[in-house]
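Task card 7
Instruction: Convert sequence to structure tokens.
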Amino acid sequence: MEELKIDINETKRGKEQIIINKKFKYNYSYSKKNKSKEYRCTEYKTLNKCISYIILNDEKEILKYDGIHNHFKQEFNAVLSLTKYKIKKEIKNSSIPFKIKPKRVFNQISQDIGFICPEFKSIKSQIIKDINKQLPPNISSFEKIPEKHYLQWDAPKNLHCDFERAISNAEIIVFPDINIRYCIWHYKQSLRHHKNKICHNEVNHNRDLYVYYNDILNLPFINPNYILDILHKIKKSCIKNSYIQFLIFLEYFRKIYLILYDIENWNYYNNIEHITNNAFESFNNYLSGLFSKKPTYFKLTYTLNNDVFLYPDTYEKECLAYGTNKREKH
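Output:
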């Protein structure tokens, strides 16, 4: 009689299953008073009506076995099912399930159990589902995030960004004390774009307007106490000389940079250490390189907490180095 090797498996519904010699599958049927369990061949409830069964004690020792089957071996299905179970078990035992590489773990387990016919594509989606099941469900608010998944960083003090109101508004909501600093390069690009759109010919053919336009470009480096006075004088001159198109440009500037945005957020008169968001964009590019696609909240926080380059003090040094290198080049 062939020696019996028993592998413990699990059905799709999470119930216990037995696999004999990687050829036949037996589903749990019922338990007896002596704590033994009876398992019946999975073909019992099919048209085959296979009557094969096995009885095991609580130590998984064989008490009785009827190995007569009226159907072919199920070697491929049995081993594939066992592979799925072992992968699922490894995922459950992992403290960081999203770090598991589905293909790697499939190949390793297939090799361990001697699975000759790999069917990775057929179970890839199930592996990913098993990984996702080990993560907390979708979070609807910050209050529901488990403490162990908190980002282990102090709140940032500064944010350099372009003139995207949605970004700065979101940052202020999350970090009320943050200092918003807008990028001078984007400031000048935006003004250049609207100048070309509104008063290109006037500025290019009028020396006074050309000077006024450049004065406005350099307002970020002027003492903020003088900005309104400068704009008032420019406007007064434009009215006197009927520079209609440039007056429209001045009105655009007033609505955007004096009303929509606070002067203190785009003025660098007292601090010209970092006047662009280049360092932040470099940091963002580094983050993008860490993730092939949009990460889950839990994968994001794990990566941020464990990547040495992303530690706040390391990043501050990178920003300082970036600024130093720029000054040396000039």
